[in-house]
Every structure is written in structure tokens, then in C-alpha cells.
Design a protein that fits this description.
It is a single chain. The chain is built from 1 helix and 57 strands. The protein is mainly β. It has 2 domains: 286 residues, 7 Propeller (Methylamine Dehydrogenase, Chain H), CATH 2.130.10; 351 residues, Methylamine Dehydrogenase, Chain H (7 Propeller), CATH 2.130.10.10. The chain has a 5-stranded mixed sheet, with no helix packed on it. A 5-stranded mixed sheet has the order 42-46-45-44-43, with no helix packed on it. The longest helix is centred in the last third of the chain and has 10 residues. It is globular, with a radius of gyration of 27 Å. This is Endoglucanase.
Length: 779
């Protein structure tokens, strides 16, 4: 056994917190103190009222199967408060994962459902999609995203599709007597034309044996909408009325079939309906749609509606939220005390509702003096406390415990929610910053204290944030110096490209775009200046003078878009790339890295494991053939599509370690005298290395001048886990338990100063650092 021991490790989040789209909230209707939140990419959380924080329920999920990080629906059993159902999955697999917990989500058993399920697919903001039959705990209904309405009578052992023609479902409601079922659909399978959906709402009065159309408002045709027609979004039932919110695909929506919710662009034409019953059937509806002031209106609105919720302890109390109103103004939370017959505005952006932010980066001064609230697709009143309301957003959850007061003081309540997508992590060799965290959506954070949220993500001189950075390169010679590839933010307050820090990530300046090299490059640079466009991948020499930029085309790094500056970014030119025969390379991909010690050396890795070296500061790259066999891997991807990790060894010239997935962990050595490249596989055949980083090898040791500890996640002798080696793969120590997996791992780096500490950039559980419980080892 090469893994000769398991070291007891503790893992903590370097707190963001929040940052991602919480897609739904769920209270237990009978037992106080039970509240769950589902997220698009971060699994399910349970709120711990005594601690006032959220607890993630996916820590045991490993990279072998990350389905549970993508929940589309949760359900609870009224009679068994400890029971939790979760439906999750990954698009393209053809099946979903149906998970059952009998202990509030601490552990699960899993079953398959033969339909496509994906919690990060457009339309993820609608619901309820999964419900338990109140008369039979073994019977559940599931409104799938692409495959129709389904039912199980044996708690998921088998499933049958109900006779509803529409494939694109949004929600399902079942009456207390189990006879009446209302199904919300996107009306796409039965669409009337290429620009008009079919009917959305259907009802069954015979427990799902047959369905008929349920009355709903007439559709209004909007000529610049790609797909017209109302779609049911959310519902609530208070024992008397069934409330439904509906929306139309918006003018700027970039998705057609699934473009019925905020998460696919925008929605308009929102409606709030109140269905009433007579003789056991739905007899009709009242249109209780409020306008911006809360007055009932029949007009076509330029925004939609998300969640709606009632409260059993205060009959007549309702709240509902707008959706995609932030495109022109601020989102609104409405309050009604008479079943929706009249409304008042409880929250409107920064103007009403006394909204404040506990999390610094959410504050208006860091968001162009705007309110960042968006995607309010769900809202819930505590069934046992009419003053407590929670709503979701695209950046975490918010709440008030004083709904009925004149000053509800809404605020973010995201402690414990860490579901942002972290793309790369870097541990500098010195300086105040302990961790540089490269993050999807939010941009990047420089942690000076690993246990405290940063004041803001990477920003300009006015506090306007950059978003979704892709990578950073930090000088080992001077940790004050770093360059980052960043996207410009949604509001256009910042523009994408290269941003540089010269003061240890305190401030940033944007390097000017090098227009004028050629038309193709100019086109890509102009695209990058648009909001939310990938900038690419960057490498910088230790002195900051030479900069090589692989400009992005989406998630790819085309070889013809590699630029180089030899004057600190004042001017750029197109880099030359040459194959083994000395001929120019005009197609393919190239990801660039700097030598950790020499300013003139840069390295490039291609789409089919081509290796290039530049000895002139990045102006020209020449392909080198390794003397040994080297597996074929595609290094030309970025963002979450990047499936390799390359780390240059600090204090050395020409030494790199490469995590190549199932091909294992490799070491690359470039001899500057002979210009030869040698590669060596450090892991055994059959072992895998997915992500890796380098750290200091022992207590009171020096990272730059001594050998390195290698930290990685991978599979050794068939067992996935986190590992470290001090002897380049001759022996290993495991660093985690089965309940310390944390979903998808996108990047790993070892601490360069504190022995034993390493960092995990996850795609579902935030950025974490692991430390030994006892640090007694010396080498």
C-alpha cells in the first residue's frame, strides 16, 4: 500500500458567503424550526436556527458523482419531519438521482428516476416540482424539466409517467384528498407555433388518470419575444385558494424552450392568479396582479413574478416577489392581508423596506450604487411566525423577522451558504494575502484572514467589481505583483481584460486593450469589453515586465490569439508559435505559464499535449518533444471546462507538475542548456490525479529553496480522496474522510508558508482550507 496513513484533517470555508443562485426554499408545514434551501450548483442546505447559520448537506459528495450538487426539487413528509426528499442530477445522463433522508439530510439513500434532471438547467427557479401525497407517504409526484409528469407509489423504486402530453413541466400541486392535481407546464411540446407556447395549466380530478386544460388568462403576443405565452412559475395553497404566478419569455431572453424563468435571461408579462374552488373543483380565478405601487392591474407588465406564499397562522396573509424587474428598476416584495385583494409594497430595492447588507461585497457602494437583488424566484413565510419571511436571490438568501412592522429591515442571511463556483486558487509565497481565490460570477477575493469575508472582490478605483475571473499569475519574486483575467460586470461599470495589482491585491488597474494588431484580435478584444465575457489566461514574468495573454474565444484559448508584451503591458504584439519543423502554428490551442524564476522563459501547452517553450519573453514559442511518453490531454480549455492543473515549482527553473486526470500526476523538467524536455509519471498506472498544488514541505522550512509537498485530489488504488506526498509519489498520506469530499474540485494549492495547510477551490461548496488537527510532523 502506497497510502501508508490517514492524517486527521479539519476543513473550513474561507467565507464569501452567499454569492450564488439559491433556487428554492422549503419550510416543514407541521414542525417548527425546519427550513431547507436548494441551490443551483451547491446542493441542499438546512437552516440551524440556534446557530443562525446554514449547514450544507453535500459534504460527502465526491467528484466520482456530483449529481447531488444539482438539486432541482425538495419535498417533505408532513407526518415525518425528519424525512427529506431531494431530486437532483446532471443534464445528459438520461436519468436523475432521487435521494431520501430519514435524519434531516445528514445521510441519504439513493434511487434512480428514468428522466433527465439537472438543478442548473434553465427553469430551475420554478416549483414545487416534487410533492408527497398527503394520504399516502409512499406516493410522490415529480414535474420533470424535459420528460413530463411522473408518479411513484413505492417511494421511488418504480416510476410511471402520467398521461399529460407536454414534456416541459414547471410545477405540480396535489390536493389534500389526492384527487385533484394541477400541473404547470411550459407549453413547448404542444406549442401552437414557433413563437407561441401552448396551454400552461392542466388539472386532473381523478388522481392523474386524465387531465384537462385549467382556465388561465389569454396570451398577449409580443413581437420581439422569441416565445410568447404564459407559463406557470410558482404556486401556494392556503387551504382556501390556490395562488399561481405566471410569466412570459422576455424580449432579451436567449433561451426559447426553457426560457420561462429569470435564470434564462428575463421574463415579462407577469401575472398573479387566485384560483377558487366549488363542489370539489376549481371554479375560476381572480387576477390579483399588483403594479409597482401595489394597485391591482390588468395591464401587461414589463417584468414578471416569482414566489408567492401564505401563512397558516394568519389567514389572508400573502407575500409575493417580482422577477426580472431589476433590468429597469428594483425588485419588489409585496404584502397582502386580504388574500391578495389588495397589496402594499414591503420592499423595493434600497427605497423601501430598510434593506441592509451584512456581507460587504453586496453593499451598493461596490455595485455601482445599485441594489444587487435579482432573481427573486421564491419567497416563503414561516408557517408558525408571520413576521419571518425568507426570499431567494441570485446571490444568496435574504430575510426579515419583522414583516408586519413599519420597518421590516430586510437583510442577507447567508452565513454558511458557500455555493459559488471557484475556478482557481493560489497561495502566495509571502505578503499579507494568504489566499487568492478566483471565482465565477463574483470575480476574485484576496484573503488576508482566512476566517473573515473580504471587504470586496476585485474592483476598480471606484469600488465597481469585476466578475468571473479565470486565472491569476502572482510573482514569486514580489507577491505585491499579480495579473488577473477578468470579465466586465453586468452593469458595464467595469470592462473585461487584464487587471493588475502592484500592492498585494489592495488595488487594481486595468491594462489597456491592445487594439490594432489585426482584425481578428480586435474583434475578440471588443467582445471581451462587453459584460460577462471570458478574457482568457495570462502569465507574467517574475519582474512583471513580460506578459503573455492567451485571449479567450468562449472557453477555448486559440493559438492565433496569443499576445505578448515586453514592456509591462504598454504595448502588445502577436506571439509567434512554431511546430517541431519550425513552421508557424495557425490552428489549435495554447495555454501559457511563466517560469517561476527566470523572466525570459514561458511555456505553453496545447490542445493535444503539445509543449512549447519561449526563451525570449514570450515573443516566440517553439514546440519541444518530450523524450519520454506523454499522455494526450487538452490543455486548451478554461473556466469549469478546464480539466487539467499545471503548477510551476517555485524557486526552480523549468520544473512543472501536471494533474492530468485519469492519466495521473506528471513532472516535467526543461533543461535550459540542452533545451530538452523530460517527463515522468509520478503516480502508478491506473491511478488518477485531477487537481494538484505545491506547498512547503515541513515546519520551519523554506518553500522556495527546498523540495515541495504535493497536495492533490485523485484516485489511488481505486480510492478517491485528498492526498499529499513528500517524495514525489513514492508514498502518500490521505487527508480526508468519506464525509469530507466537497463535490467537484476545480483547483488545489498548498500553503507556501504554513506546513500542512492546503486550499480547495470547489464547484459547489465554496473555497476551503484544510489543516491537520495536530501539526507535529517534522522532516
Amino acid at each position: 500500500m502506497k497510502v501508508h496513513k490517514t492524517i486527521t484533517y479539519e476543513y473550513k470555508n474561507a467565507p464569501i458567503p452567499g454569492g450564488g443562485y439559491v433556487t428554492g426554499l422549503l419550510y416543514h408545514p407541521k414542525q417548527p424550526g425546519i427550513l431547507y434551501a436548494r441551490t443551483d450548483i451547491g446542493g441542499v442546505y438546512r437552516y440551524e436556527y440556534e446557530k443562525k447559520c446554514w449547514k450544507g448537506l453535500i459534504d460527502s459528495v465526491s467528484m466520482a458523482d456530483i449529481s447531488e450538487t444539482f438539486p432541482i426539487a425538495c419535498a417533505l413528509d408532513e407526518k415525518k419531519p425528519e424525512r427529506l426528499y431531494v431530486m437532483s442530477g446532471i443534464n445528459g445522463q438520461g436519468y436523475g438521482k432521487f435521494s431520501i433522508s430519514e435524519n434531516y439530510g445528514e445521510t441519504f439513500i439513493h434511487k434512480k428516476i428514468p428522466v433527465t434532471v439537472h438543478g442548473n438547467l434553465c427553469g430551475r427557479g420554478t416549483g414545487y416540482r416534487l410533492v408527497v401525497d398527503k394520504k399516502d407517504e409512499n406516493t410522490l409526484y415529480f414535474a420533470s424539466q424535459l420528460d413530463g409528469l411522473w408518479k411513484t407509489t413505492d417511494r421511488g423504486d418504480t416510476w410511471e409517467r402520467l398521461p399529460l402530453e407536454e414534456n416541459y413541466m414547471t410545477c405540480v400541486w396535489v390536493s389534500d384528498d389526492s384527487k385533484t392535481i394541477v400541473a404547470g407546464t411550459a407549453g413547448y411540446t404542444i406549442r401552437e407555433s414557433d413563437t407561441l407556447r401552448g396551454h400552461s395549466l392542466y388539472v386532473s380530478y381523478d388522481a392523474g388518470q386524465t387531465f384537462e386544460k385549467l382556465m388561465q388568462p389569454e396570451n398577449v403576443m409580443i413581437h420581439d419575444s422569441k416565445m410568447n405565452g404564459l407559463v406557470a412559475s410558482r404556486y401556494d395553497y392556503d387551504g382556501t385558494y390556490l395562488y399561481v404566478t405566471m410569466n412570459v419569455t422576455g424580449r432579451w431572453n436567449y433561451v426559447v424552450d426553457l426560457g420561462y424563468s429569470c435564470d434564462s435571461g428575463d421574463v415579462i408579462g407577469g401575472k398573479v392568479l387566485r384560483y377558487y374552488f366549488s363542489d370539489g373543483k376549481i371554479a375560476g380565478y381572480d387576477d390579483i396582479t399588483p403594479d409597482a405601487d401595489g394597485t391591482l392591474t390588468a395591464e401587461f407588465l414589463n417584468y414578471g413574478f416569482g414566489g408567492i406564499s401564505s401563512c397558516k397562522t394568519m389567514p389572508g396573509l400573502l407575500v409575493c416577489s417580482t422577477l426580472c424587474r431589476e433590468k429597469e428598476s428594483d425588485e419588489i416584495v409585496y404584502l397582502s392581508k386580504d388574500y391578495g385583494s389588495s397589496w402594499s409594497v414591503s420592499l423595493c430595492g434600497l427605497e423601501k423596506g430598510d434593506l441592509y447588507f451584512n456581507t460587504s461585497y453586496m453593499k451598493p457602494e461596490y455595485n455601482g450604487n445599485h441594489c444587487l437583488l435579482h432573481w427573486l424566484s421564491d419567497i416563503k413565510i414561516n408557517p408558525f411566525d408571520p413576521d419571518e419571511v425568507w426570499f431567494n436571490s441570485g446571490t444568496g438568501v435574504f430575510m426579515t423577522d419583522a414583516l408586519l412592522s413599519e420597518h421590516p429591515r430586510y437583510h442577507d442571511a447567508c452565513t454558511g451558504i458557500e455555493e459559488t463556483v471557484h475556478l482557481n486558487v493560489y497561495a502566495p509565497v509571502d505578503g499579507e494575502v494568504q489566499l487568492v481565490d478566483i471565482v465565477g460570477d463574483l470575480g476574485g477575493f484576496a484573503f488576508r484572514n482566512l476566517d473573515e469575508p473580504c471587504k470586496n472582490s476585485f474592483d476598480d478605483s471606484e469600488g465597481n467589481r469585476y466578475i468571473t475571473c479565470i486565472n491569476a499569475d502572482i510573482s514569486d519574486a514580489d507577491s505585491n505583483l499579480g495579473i488577473v483575467t477578468a470579465r466586465g460586470n453586468w452593469k458595464g461599470k467595469t470592462k473585461g481584460g487584464l487587471v493588475r495589482t502592484c500592492d498585494n491585491f489592495k488595488t487594481f488597474d486595468r491594462i489597456g486593450m491592445p487594439f490594432g494588431i489585426n482584425a481578428e484580435i480586435d474583434k475578440k478584444l471588443h467582445e471581451i469589453e462587453n459584460p460577462n465575457v471570458n478574457a482568457g489566461w495570462v502569465a507574467v514574468s517574475p519582474d512583471g515586465v513580460n506578459i503573455v495573454w492567451s485571449v479567450a474565444d468562449g472557453i477555448r484559448l486559440p493559438v492565433e490569439l496569443v499576445l505578448v508584451s515586453n514592456d509591462g503591458g504598454h504595448s502588445f504584439q502577436k506571439a509567434g508559435v512554431f511546430d517541431l519543423a519550425g513552421q508557424p502554428v495557425e490552428t489549435g490551442y495554447l495555454k501559457v505559464f511563466s517560469d517561476r524564476s527566470r523572466k525570459d522563459l514561458f511555456y505553453g501547452f496545447g490542445g493535444a499535449s503539445e509543449i512549447y517553450v519561449s526563451r525570449d519573453g514570450g515573443r516566440n514559442f517553439y514546440q519541444k518533444q518530450p523524450k519520454e511518453a506523454f499522455p494526450v490531454c487538452d490543455f486548451g480549455y478554461i473556466d469549469t471546462a478546464n480539466k487539467t492543473e499545471v503548477r510551476g515549482e517555485g524557486g526552480k527553473t523549468g520544473i512543472f507538475y501536471l494533474a492530468l486526470g485519469d492519466a495521473g500526476l506528471y513532472k516535467l523538467c526543461y533543461d535550459t542548456k540542452t533545451e530538452e524536455i523530460h517527463v515522468k509519471r509520478l503516480t502508478d498506472t491506473g491511478d488518477a490525479c485531477y487537481r494538484m498544488g505545491l506547498g512547503v514541505i515541513g515546519e520551519d522550512r523554506d518553500y522556495l529553496t527546498e523540495e515541495k509537498a504535493i497536495y492533490f485530489c485523485g484516485r489511488l488504488e481505486g480510492e478517491y480522496g485528498f492526498y499529499r506526498t513528500f517524495d514525489e509519489g513514492k508514498s502518500y498520506e490521505r487527508l480526508n474522510q468519506d464525509n469530507q469530499m466537497y463535490g467537484e474540485i476545480n483547483s488545489i494549492d498548498g500553503d507556501k508558508r504554513k506546513f500542512g495547510r492546503f486550499f480547495l477551490a470547489t464547484g459547489s461548496r465554496g473555497v476551503l482550507y484544510g489543516e491537520m488537527k495536530r501539526q507535529s510532523r517534522k522532516i
